[in-house]
Amino acid sequence: MTAQVTSPGSAIGSDLAALRRLLALAGQWRNRLLFGFFLRLLQSICLGLAFATVLWVLASLIGEPAVSAKTIWPVVLIMAVSLAGQVGFGILAMQTCWLASHRLGGDLRLKMLERLRHLPMGFHLSRDKGETITAMTADIQMLETFFADGFPRIAHALGLPFAAFLLLAVTDWPAALVGLVSIVCGLPFFLWSSRRLAALSARRQIAQADAATRMIEFVQGMKVIRAFNRLDDGWTSFKVALDRFHAISVGMITALAVPIVAFSAVVMLGLPLLVAFIGYRHFAGGMPSGSVVIGLGLMMSLYSPILSLAGVMETARMAESALDRIDRILDAPPLPESARHRKPDGFEICFRNVGFSYLTAKPVLRDVSFVVPERSMTAIVGPSGSGKSTLLNLLSRFWDVEDGNITLGGVDLRDMRFEDLAANIAVVFQDVHLFSGTIAENITTGMSDASHADIEAAARAAQAHDFIMALPKGYATEVGEGGAKLSGGERQRISIARAVLKNAPIVLLDEATAAIDPTNERAIQTALEHLVADRTLIVVAHRLSTIRNADQIIVVDQGHVAETGRHDDLLAQQGLYARLWHLRNQAASWQLGRVEENA
Fold first, then answer.
1. DSSP label at 483?
2. What's the rounded Cα separation, in Å, for the pair 71 and 255?
3. Please, which contacts does 18-23 make with residues 24 or more away whose CB atoms are closer than 8 Å?
């Protein structure tokens, strides 16, 4: 599939191209959907058969020969077969299309989740959450609705008029040709409405995603909104986005009113035209009464289903517009992975002339080089925004370096399978995220097959067992979304427990105690001692007192390595590290308010 971002000024493909594109998405379910389409077509033909039989009976009542007792039973049989076909084919078509459409939706969601899992973090950070969520929910639901209901309705909208036209052509071919005149004349208006719908649907999808983003921000930021008394502002932001979505939806209906009404009017003009033509030929003696009855009876079955086709194609165009956003996920390039799948020889980490930028015009790292020996502790310090956390992100391969390379055990990270790299690294972030579920489920995030004994051992090592057992349900306690039911220190210890359970040879710490109170800090420091024992440790340090015994300290400033050494050596150099240490000591003695001299 190729991503197609549709805008009002862009060229829009034909309706047939839209259907082909949607069917191409169906993959393994395409044949089942086409089979459902065929079943619905057979249902429509059975309906046409019943309708044709009734018209034949009416025509024979006023013509020769009339319906007799001998011919009535075949008529009844035909009507019974038609009814059975309508019911049977209808049920089979519905079951086939609905089952295939929902399985397609499930497969597509799994495919999107798999793609999202392999995309670089830059892709996720550059998009609004609402856009991805809308693609996973509303957009796929739109596709499911089209394949379950809209696609089969196309068969009905085409099948019955086609059968009616064939019967009319057999009865009186000049009348059949006249019946086509209004349909052919209405086709340009149909294409006009279809193109306008495609362009407006793209704008509507963007507005819908924006409204979803504002809603997520409002709900997730409720604590900050309430703390700063910004409830009105938060609500207003969401309401503005919702009003924009509503305005575009109403505007879409208004803009489509003229072409759709024009299409309907032109097509329906075929009724008086066909009546006039049939009447003229009948009174001129060129058309028998039976053919008149059949011709007049077929008129509505010829035009009414075609009018419904406009509504069906609206669903197809909106589904195609939804597919645009889905394509932007499925077609996004993942992190490239080498076919060599090399394994590291040991766990020494080496940064060589690494350069990286989140934005092209603003480099974050420039010519960064250093070595982290196996089973050693390396601390990374520096002012805010100097690139400390970026180093951990690159080592975890959330992004790829732009210049230079990073090796693990002598192997470039880009030559390793991402799963192999992730298996060797445990990360404890400062901003802990827990998943909805139980405490036990969160601890086993990195090792889903762990036993309860392993879980409990990891929790004890993380100094978390006691507070877990104090909870009403122990390890079966639900943590809430993002771990909202636990305190910051408790969430941090759960994150350390899952890192302990993973038992990876490399541990990355984005200062786990930076925002923790002194009581929890002591417990977490004890937990970290269990975590990092006999492992390669890299820690981004905000509290310099926690890294005095590091084997080496990397001082980063404005994206490059300013100093490297041990604590005492760096203090003796009287450089940036010494200044940071001095500022840290000043901050440690800082007090709120003025201290009276004789207090």
1. G
2. 54
3. 18/198, 18/316, 18/317, 18/320, 19/154, 19/316, 21/320, 21/323, 22/143, 22/146, 22/147, 22/151, 22/316, 22/319, 22/320, 22/323
Please state, in angstroms and as integers, the Cα–Cα distance from residue 98 to each residue in 35, 101, 136, 186, 326, following that order.
Answer: 12, 5, 19, 32, 21
Q: What digits encode the pLDDT tens for the residues 464-474?
A: 898 899 998 99
- pLDDT tens for 225-268 read 665 555 555 567 667 777 777 776 676 666 666 677 777 777 77
Cα(523)–Cα(491) distance, rounded to whole angstroms?
13
Q: Could you report the per-residue pLDDT of 476-497, keeping only the tens digit for each?
A: 999 887 777 888 788 888 888 8
Asked whether residue 158 falls in the same domain as residue 282, the answer is yes
Q: Do 35 and 163 fall within a single domain? A: yes
In a domain, 337, yes or no: no
- Rounded distance between C-alpha atoms, residue 269 and residue 572, angstroms: 95
Range of the domain at 201: 15-330
Structure tokens belonging to residue 230:
């910004």
Pick the more confident residue, 565 or 53.
565
Residue 92 burial (10 A CB sphere; 0-12, 13-18, 19+): middle
Whether residue 5 lies inside any domain: the answer is no
Model confidence, pTM: 0.65
Cis (ω within 30 of 0) for the bond into 65?
yes
